[in-house]
UniProtKB/TrEMBL annotation:
Keywords: Cell outer membrane, Membrane, Signal, TonB box. It is found in: Cell outer membrane. The keyword Cytoplasm does not apply. It comes from Hymenobacter caeli. Residues 1-24 form the signal peptide. It holds the Pfam family Plug. Belongs to the TonB-dependent receptor family. This is TonB-dependent receptor. InterPro entries: Beta-barrel_TonB, Beta-barrel_TonB_sf, CarboxyPept-like_regulatory, Plug_dom, Plug_dom_sf. Its main location: membrane. Residues 305-741 form the TonB-dependent receptor-like beta-barrel domain. Residues 162-234 form the TonB-dependent receptor plug domain.
Length: 795
């Protein structure tokens, strides 16, 4: 399927040829060419020095404005003269000042003060109020931790990903399942970034919690459509999580003691006014309680994570940022079984402003996910390990050509090393023999050009191209499989490759475009088209992903996945932006979607690539969203009507079947009510269609045993019962004393408040009392009410 590149290439070429003066003539009628001769640039932060990501800088008289980036930096091209500039951010007092620009750059450092609240008002959004209407972005949701903390939490653990599951277009295959699904895609089709470093497994405790410590996170951005050309490598979405910068002026701390884990975070100056650090740690302590039970003292079950960031101001034009993450889950059952898995991430970023219009970010990062399991001694003693490592270097430029015209361009290079699996016996008497699947290596280079442009007072757009080149490389003896679609492939030959030799190359162009047409000051229409390519694949033949699933790069046998998505939306705000509403419809086609022949084994299968099947996919739906942003009562309602299907030769009689994560109906209602300035009540209700699964429709008897049977080649012919749940919480803040830095609050939660026994899965077994009868058994992760209490503090 060749991408429709030419119209987008023409748009890019036209925008680069069009002179800045012409752009200004479009965005500000009445001003002549050559009037744009000055630039206002600077940073926006709160009183603690935290950057206000997405804060707005507006010159209302000219109808011009911009937003602060991830470091709180901004640049706005303006004509020379005197202008009234307004800086604003939801939840903070706006600031207005009159500035005179005399033909050169003017730099400002602006600090906004949090809005004083005399009643129990709660603000649940962290961006400009009209951003959903006026921006060119589609399918984008931004959250700050204030919003996330308002949502009732499982066992008191405030969680980023559980909050995302309450948004339109986002779902999961079940309670306790790792990852999340966006618009009919798999969990591996989400690009998850923590300060630019990709996260390969975002879950603790097999999916119950995410790896993101709430005390370390400052900003969360989910992009479901209209993905900028800067990002690639996944088909469904981008989850961009940003860590807090430290306070360069004073030492601060925060943390919490909860039912499952405790947290502590510290941040403060390294060199006052010039550099700062932020450290956060979290650990669960189920293993501590296990040691109190004599029969369980040798067992362990816990997770921990450490997050750190340091920022340095090197000069008026330079900044240096270091970020890191280390986290693991450990499960040991005495000396009979040991397992652990976790992520290690690191990022170094240098920011430099060449001049008021041109800036660059140079980034080096590394990301590794690995898991180990085994038995330490005895005849079944073994050690099993697997990992995926990627190292990336990239450079990203931002150039503001003129008011209403911003170019972003850059390039990146990534090196992948995948260890599919290695088994080593740990005891001389072990029945296991050393077994190792060869490491897989690949490189990927990418370059992009993206242009955000205001065409007229009503029409704006963002469009770009991304070129990715993926090379599967040696060393190793590489097998080649061939055969008709729908059956296990036959080995047709093997060839030896040296270190760094190219085995197979895949090059792809990925056009992106989005348009916004303003109907009124409070409403707009938007449209977007996105083509994405994915060269890393999570090979899992289970309904819910597990930490033991295997990642694989595209090879000479495994082709890249492609997706084309078209989306349309209507966005409307009411009552001076107190309410926002949107309706988005989307359609997505996918190719080279991976499935497996019946009975395929993923783990340590040296011929796994021969067992893979490929086919097409399609997903489409409508998303409805209504949100109340301020006042004593805040919250949102979201509803998604959708369908996700696959068609793969060799499965379901070569006909379309619903994907395992297809959920036609998904409803969420979230609300928080501030009874007083110190007491707030919150609730969240969710309802969704049950997941699709394959169930027997007949049975036969074999040697006195009743064996369930599926007639015909059918897939996902049954759905488990619908899922619904109500969560409640109450937050009580302690009395604040003047001059006292310590602030505390108690959070009381009820997860699954009415004790719904939702089905994680349903399986068949023989009745214990009557073996001739077959019975269906419902497996539930949480089948009862789960109360919790958490004490949070900051100083």
């Amino acid at each position: 399927m060749s991408p429709p590149v030419y119209p987008f290439a023409w748009l890019l070429t036209a925008s680069l040829v069009l002179p800045p003066a012409a752009l200004l003539a479009q965005t500000a009628p009445g001003r002549g060419a050559g009037t744009t001769a000055a630039t206002l640039r600077g940073t926006l932060a709160d009183a603690a020095g935290q950057p206000l990501i997405g804060a707005t800088i507006v010159v209302k008289a000219l109808g011009l404005g911009t937003a602060a980036d991830e470091q709180g930096c901004f640049a706005l091209a303006l004509p020379a003269g005197t202008h009234v500039v307004t800086y604003s951010f939801v939840g903070y007092e706006p600031r207005t000042e009159t500035l005179t620009l005399a033909g050169g750059p003017l730099t400002r450092t602006v600090q906004l003060v949090a809005a004083s609240v005399s009643t129990g008002e709660v603000i649940v959004t962290a961006r400009r109020a009209e951003d959903n209407v006026q921006s060119t972005e589609m399918g984008v949701t931004r959250l700050d931790m204030k919003t996330v903390r308002l949502v009732p939490a499982l066992l008191g653990e405030v969680d980023v990903i559980r909050t995302l599951l309450l948004l339109p277009g986002v779902s999961t295959v079940g309670e306790g399942a790792a990852g999340f699904n966006v618009r009919g895609g798999g969990i591996d089709q989400n690009l998850i970034l923590l300060d630019d470093a990709p996260v390969m497994n975002s879950s603790h405790l097999f999916g119950l919690f995410s790896i993101f410590n709430p005390d370390a996170v400052s900003d969360i951005k989910l992009v479901k459509g209209g993905l900028p050309a800067q990002y690639g490598g996944r088909l469904s979405s981008l989850l961009d999580v940003r860590l807090k910068n430290g306070n360069a002026d004073s030492l601060r701390g925060s943390g919490g003691i909860g039912t499952v884990s405790s947290r502590l975070a510290l941040d403060g100056p390294i060199q006052k006014g010039k550099s700062a650090f932020a450290l956060a740690g979290r650990r669960s302590y189920a293993d501590v309680f296990l040691k109190l039970v004599p029969a369980q003292r040798d067992n362990a079950a816990y997770f921990y994570d450490l997050t750190g960031k340091a920022s340095f101001t090197l000069g008026p034009r330079d900044g240096l940022y270091l970020s890191g993450y280390l986290g693991r889950d450990v499960f040991n059952f005495g000396s009979s079984f040991l397992s652990d898995f976790g992520n290690t991430l690191g990022t170094v970023r240098w920011s430099h402003a060449f001049n008021p219009r041109l800036a660059v970010n140079v980034t080096a990062l590394t990301s590794q996910y690995d898991y180990h399991l085994g038995v330490p001694t005895g005849t079944t003693g073994f050690d099993w390990q697997s990992s995926i490592l990627n190292r990336t270097g990239k450079v990203d430029f931002t150039y503001q050509r003129a008011a209403g015209s911003t170019l972003s361009f850059g390039a990146s290079g990534t090196w992948y090393t995948v260890q599919p699996g290695q088994v080593t016996p740990t005891d001389p008497a072990s029945i296991f023999q050393p077994l190792q699947r060869p490491d897989q290596r690949a490189t990927e280079g990418a370059a992009y050009l993206d242009h955000e442009q205001v065409f007229s007072p009503r029409l704006a757009g963002q469009y770009g191209l991304r070129l990715s080149v993926f090379d599967y490389r040696g060393p190793g003896r590489i097998a080649e499989y061939a055969g008709p679609d729908g059956v296990q492939k036959a080995l047709v030959g093997e060839q030896e490759y040296g270190k760094g030799d190219r085995v197979k190359r895949y090059a792809n162009l990925e056009p992106r475009a989005s348009l916004r047409y303003t109907l009124t000051a409070a409403s707009s229409l938007k449209a977007s088209y996105t083509r994405t390519v994915q060269n890393l694949h999570l090979l899992s033949n289970t309904t819910a992903s597990s930490p033991l699933d295997v990642w694989s790069p595209s090879t000479n046998n495994i082709r890249p996945e492609h997706a084309d998505q078209l989306a349309l939306g209507y966005f409307r705000n009411f009552h001076n932006n107190a309410y926002e509403a949107s309706v988005e419809v989307y359609g997505k086609t996918l190719d080279n979607q991976i499935d497996y022949i019946n009975g395929a084994n993923v783990l340590l299968n040296a011929r796994l690539e021969a067992d893979l099947l490929y086919g097409r996919g399609r997903a489409y739906g409508a998303e409805f969203y209504l949100r109340k942003n301020n006042g004593p009562l805040t919250g949102w309602v979201s509803y998604t009507l959708s369908r996700s299907e696959r068609r793969i030769n060799g499965i379901n009689n070569n006909d379309w079947y619903v994907a395992k994560y297809d959920k036609p109906h998904n409803l969420a209602v979230v609300g928080s009510y501030a009874l007083t300035a110190r007491l707030a009540l919150s609730g969240a209700f969710t309802y969704s269609t049950g997941i699709a699964t394959t169930m027997p429709d007949s049975r036969f008897e074999y040697q006195g045993l009743i064996v369930p049977n599926v007639n015909g080649d059918v897939r996902n012919n049954y759905r488990v019962p619908a899922y619904h749940r109500l969560d409640l919480s109450a937050t009580w803040q302690q009395q604040r004393n003047a001059g006292r830095r310590w602030q505390g609050e108690w959070v009381f939660s009820l997860y699954n408040a009415y004790g719904r026994r939702n089905a994680y899965s349903i399986y068949l077994r023989q009745n214990e009392n009557n073996p001739l009868q077959t019975e269906a058994v419902r497996l539930s992760v949480f089948g009862t009410v789960l109360p919790s209490v958490t004490y949070n503090f900051k100083f």
